Amino acid sequence: MSRVVLAAADEELILRVKQAADGDVQVLPPGRLPGDPARLFEQLLDGELPDVLLVGPLAPLQEVLTLTQRLDVQSPGISVVLLTEPAPDTWQAAMRAGVRDLLHPRSDVAEIRAAVDRAGTVAEGRRRVLRPVEETARYTGRVITIASPKGGVGKTTVSANLAIGLTAAAPQSTVLVDLDVQFGDVASALSMVPEYTLPDVVRGPASEDTMVLKTFLTQHPSGLYAVCGAESPAAGDTVRGEDVTRLLAMLAREFRYVVVDTAPGLSEQTLAALDRATDVIMLTSMDVPGVRGLRKELDVLRELCMIPAGRHVVMNFADPKGGLSVRDVETTIGAGVDVVLPRSSAVPGSTNQGVPLLESGSRRDPMVKELRRLVSRFSATPLIHQSRYRAKHRAAS
């Protein structure tokens, strides 16, 4: 029997689902169904993702569809089954959102059991396709490109923390690429001294053989691999768009996650990274110039058809006293904001020490909590508690 999570159900439906699932079901507390999968995962008692999410009739349909659409992109190994009154429009909207099955709220135990079995089989099939390298011959890595039209919005801070978080969730399976070819400072953000840099990696034997390529990467004590930026702007300028395309294709075959930190704007190298991306994080600060710049960049990328299905809008330096609200930002850019990173006094110290907040920060820090939410949008399993991670890290050192 598949592992089942049940939401938005009354006591009578809860009883039938428990009977259908032989008791292996977690019932979420009553209340609004979260639209963000990360918020949903935070409610799971043991941190283990379900095979099947059953949603009862107490949740508004639009909330269910929004959550399902995001789960379909971020956690495709979870099948959603909706219990609702049947209607042609409902069926059509649900199927488009990615709902796997619809049941009448008064379905009996046998009908619920059959639907759970069907949904669990679909979930297992999708997970087999996405199974990591330990179980299949090669990775088909996610290329996550972090982009912004302007500098100073925290791209490197976000990139470094995302990469560290993904490394904690999938050890030895993440690589961070510094594509700010002139002034990249990933090495500084992670307190690393690279032997080889980006121009070395895209030239010579490393560009032709993946085994050689891995020896040119710089390894962080956490297990994260990195392609660090060039030592000088002149050296960085020798890296071309086609070099980036080839490099990211090679890395995606060897790593589950390829995180790409880019320069401000839409340089040749950034466009190449966006072209290869499975996901793009569009980053903006919470100010008028940053938001307007992001709107223009999104417009350009839409015209070029270069926005992948996995698009995530992240707002950094959020401050309620700044005069802008999240709603203002969403209205301006014509898209929802997925993650809001608050302004934090811990960031400057983290940057100066070269230790990302997901290694050093308190779990209670709002910035750390939101960074963990960002990581959970990509990781196949929830991010392990940072206290456990730091303990492992200290033991390894």
Observed structural traits:
about 400 residues, Rossmann fold, 8-stranded mixed beta sheet, 5-stranded parallel beta sheet, 13 strands, about 15% strand, disordered C terminus
Please give a structural write-up:
The protein is of the alpha/beta class and 397 residues long. It folds into two domains: 4-129, Rossmann fold (3-Layer(aba) Sandwich); 142-396, Rossmann fold (3-Layer(aba) Sandwich), CATH 3.40.50.300. It has helices spanning 11-20, 37-42, 61-74, 88-97, 109-129, 155-169, 186-189, 198-201, 210-215, 233-236, 241-254, 268-276, 288-303, 326-333, 346-353, 357-360, 366-376, 386-396, and strands at residues 4-7, 25-27, 52-55, 79-83, 101-103, 142-147, 174-179, 218-219, 225-227, 257-262, 279-285, 310-318, 339-342. It has an eight-stranded mixed sheet with strand order 8-9-7-10-6-11-12-13, sandwiched between helices. Strands 2-1-3-4-5 form a five-stranded parallel sheet, sandwiched between helices. Helix 1 crosses helix 5, helix 6 (155-169) packs across helix 17 (366-376) and helix 11 (241-254) runs parallel beside helix 12 (268-276). The chain is globular, with a radius of gyration of 22 Å. Mean pLDDT is 85; it is low at 131-139 and 380-397.
Strands ordered across the widest β-sheet: 8-9-7-10-6-11-12-13
Low-confidence stretches: 131-139, 380-397
Please give the CATH architecture of the largest domain.
3-Layer(aba) Sandwich
Helix/strand-derived category reads alpha/beta
Distance between the termini: 42 Å
Sum up the overall morphology in one term: globular
> Under CATH, the topology of the largest domain is which?
Rossmann fold
Tell me the Rg in angstroms. Answer: 22 Å
What is the tally of helical segments? 18
Tally of DSSP β-strands: 13
How would you describe the oligomerization state of the chains in this entry? Answer: single chain
Mean pLDDT: 85
* Superfamily (CATH H level) name of the largest domain: P-loop containing nucleotide triphosphate hydrolases
* Major sheet summary line: 8 strands, mixed
